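User: I'll paste a sequence; please echo it back and then give the predicted structure.

Assistant: Echoing your sequence first, then the prediction.
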Amino acid sequence: MSERDRLVIGRNLKHLRKLKGLTQQQLADELNIRRSSIGAYEECRATPKYETIEGISNFFQVSIDLLVKEDLSGYSEEQLRERQASRGPDIEGKSLRVLSITVDQDGHENIEYVPQKASAGYLNGFADKEYLEDLPKFQLPMLRGGTFRAFQIKGDSMLPLKSGTIIIGQYLEDWRDIKEGQTYIVLSESEGVVYKRVFRHQGRDGEAMLRLKSDNPAYEDYFIELTDVREIWKARMYLSEEFPQPDMSLEKLSSIVMEIQQEVIRLKSGNN
């Protein structure tokens, strides 16, 4: 979160609290945090963690994007409701995310690695810089000019990529840039961290959704609402300790068919 964002959220928090007629202690009780934290946020001496920002957003019924990016200090409660309603559905995916990153001593962004065992914790700490600091991190010279993160997948739903494969994804800033049928890491409240082929979809009531498809035909497609999504990362590379097996050639396949045909002929001859 930038210095400007911190100033905006501090000013907005103070204004929203006063609109509700709450003291700092009363708001702290509602959010289950300390009163001193409310004071620090309002005075811009501290930056709230993502879960706190989400709690503030839910309590005041104001999107995170408005809370962090727009000065609301001149709005009445009615004007806030109108401003919120005028935004429409969040097809860009900007109202739910506050992306944190880490950098090396030269200022280059790291690639944080999220192993399988840490994926559940990532859902709660993905916007928390302190959480990211504890993750393993590395860099690759061919991946520059963007924000990248590595996720270890599990299961056999995306064969031939096996469980344990590491997918390196590039942060997708605008969800309208999703390319139909391409592979992405999708972070959502309901499904956690998954690696799937993604298609845009509209629900029966017009709600924006994603259809997630596995490469393994044994798994059925399923749908999630965009409001449930927290992050999307476009797959750029994968790392695996297992080398892929060569595809069966037409020549090899023809040979197998010939062997089967000859075996059938032999069996028929033996029965005569």
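The chain has a mean pLDDT of 85. Residues 111-239 form a domain with the Umud Fragment, subunit A fold (CATH 2.10.109.10).
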